[in-house]
Amino acid sequence: MDQLAENDKVFNNLLTAAADMPNFLQFDNTFGVKGEIAAGSTYKKLILLDASNVVQLGESGTEVRVPADPSNALGVATKQYVDGVQMFQSQAIVTVNSGLTGSFATILSLSATTRGVVHAIWIDTAGGSSTCRIKVTVDGTLIIDDTSGALTNNRFYAMRANGNIETTASTDAGDAGHPLEIRFTSTLLIEATSGDGNSRAISVRYSKIP
């Protein structure tokens, strides 16, 4: 009985870290450590080595937290740190002529770009004074579909932050600028068409994570 009590004491000390354990705990593949959730009677996986030999932390319904400092001894980087070092890079301005009446031209189409932001969209008119329609689809959802009023020939126009096309003509492209800051996380599609047979040069300034 004394020996059983001593064994129980040693085992308890190991479990509570009151004593060093001079070896590794070894688990079969896909088995590991579980913890009881606050509500009780249910256990969630904390850590295991899966069938692909990848260390899995937590499981569905749990949140894994690590020290915020990416230089910590664990050698891990938090999501906040990764997001911080992945900087948007400005891209060359894209300019494409819009399609003819009833036909949309693709001005800009991006996919699998992780994240990005559209800074401005502007129009350079030529050869007519009809309308221009612009559609912006972000991550598969159409968020802007606006048709301008009649555009004066050889003038510059821009889309406002509310998604409406500015109808006051500008003689210089710089005067037609309006900040948009339309953000996307996976895909972006900008399309345009004119209300007559004349093209409209649509330009887009944007940034994305390479």
Would you give an account of this structure?
The chain has 210 residues and is mostly beta strands. It is 10% helix and 35% strand. It is built from two helices and 13 strands. The strands form three sheets. Strands 4, 5, 7, 10, 11 and 13 form a six-stranded antiparallel sheet that branches. A four-stranded antiparallel sheet has the order 6-12-8-9, with no helix packed on it. Strands 1-2-3 form a three-stranded antiparallel sheet, with no helix packed on it. A hairpin with a 2-residue loop joins strand 8 and strand 9. The protein is rod-shaped. The model has no long low-confidence stretch (mean pLDDT 84).
Question: Secondary-structure map with pairings?
Answer:
Layout: H1 2-15, E1 32-36, E2 43-49, E3 55-57, H2 79-85, E4 89-90, E5 94-97, E6 105-110, E7 116-125, E8 132-138, E9 141-147, E10 156-158, E11 182-184, E12 188-194, E13 200-208
Antiparallel strand pairs: 1-2, 2-3, 4-13, 5-13, 6-12, 7-10, 7-11, 7-13, 8-9, 8-12
